[in-house]
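TICKET #2291
ISSUE: user wants both folds in one file
ATTACHMENT 1:
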Amino acid sequence: MKSITSQWYEVKVRYDKMKDDGTMKPETEQYVVDALTFTEAESIITEEMSVYISGEFNIKDIKQASYKEIFFSDLNNDDRWFKAKLQFLTFDEKTQKEKRSAVMYLVQAHTLPQAVKYIGEVMGATMVDYVISNIAETSIIDVFQHDALKSKNEPDAKPEYEEQAQ
C-alpha cells in the first residue's frame, strides 16, 4: 500500500464502446489524472485514452478532485476506487471542545471492508485520531499517475515535481 499526494483531476471521457453483441453504444467513463493544470490533465488523458480507444472520443468534463492523496494497493484484484471522508479529531484547549476537520481520500480496493482496512493501515502509522465519516464506491475506472521517468527521457521535458510516497 502506498500513498501519493499530488494535484488530481477527475476527467470524464465519452466514446463509442463495442458491446458484447457487436453493437456500438456511447459510453462515458471517469478517470483520475495526476497533473498540474487543466490543460496538462487534458493532454495526459488524450494520450492515455488514444491507446485504449480506437476512433474518436470527447472529453466531457475536467474538474479538480476533492482529494489530494490517493491510497494505491499493490494487489491486482483491487480494481475499484472508493472515496473516503475522514474527520481528524483535535481538542481545543481554550474552548475545551473537540474540533473535527474533514479530509477526502481516494482508496483503491476490491471491496468496501477492504477499503476501510487499507485506511486503517495507512492512518494507523500516524498519531492522528480520526473517524471515517463517509466512504462510497466511485465510478472511476482508472488513475493515471505522473510518470517521471518517461518525462525525463523526452526532449524538452518540463521540470519535474516529486511524488510523495509514505
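ATTACHMENT 2:
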Amino acid sequence: MEQTLIDYLDKFEEKLRKNLLKLATDRKALDGKLLESDDLKEFWHRIEPNYMADAVPQIASYPTVSVAWALYLGLGAAYYWDSDWTTYSSTAYETFYGDQGFDNMDDHIVRDILGLPLESEEAKKLVTLIQTLAQEAVDMIRHEQIEPQSKMAFYAFARACDAMFAIGTAIQLKRMGYKFEKMQ
C-alpha cells in the first residue's frame, strides 16, 4: 500500500476514534481516555480476518451491524481478558457466535458472556450506545465519499472495525472498574 493511502487511513481512523471516544464519554460509558491492553490488540489482530469474512458481505444490507459487531467483540474479549485470559486468549472467533452464528453475536455476547439479561435497563442502555457509535462510524465512512465496494472502501471499513473493537474493549474495561490513575 502506498504511503499516502496509509497516511489517509491513519488520519481517518484517528479522527473516528476521537469522535467515538467523545460520544462514549458524553454518554458516561468512558472517561475521555481509551483504556487499552496489548493482549486485546493482539487478540483482535488474530480474529480480525475471520470477522471481516463475516462482516464484509453484510455491509450493503446492514452497514451499522457490520461495524457494531466489532464493538461487541471488544466487549466480550475484554470480559474474557479480565476473567481468565490464560484460557480465553486462544479462544476461537466462532466462540462469540450466537445460536444463529454471526447474525445474533450481539445477543450472545451481552446475555451469555457479559451476563446481562437482554430486557434489563443496563443491556438496553448498552445496546443504544452501541447503535449510536455504529451509526457514527458509518456516517463518517460515508462522509469520506469513498466509492462503494472499492479497495479504499474496504480499507476504511477495516479501520472503522479496528476503532470499534478498541472502543468496545475500553467500554467493558471501564464497566469492570478499570481506570487510569497517576502513579506516585
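RESOLUTION: both attachments delivered.
EXTRA DETAIL ON ATTACHMENT 2: Residues 63-88 form the longest helix (26 residues).
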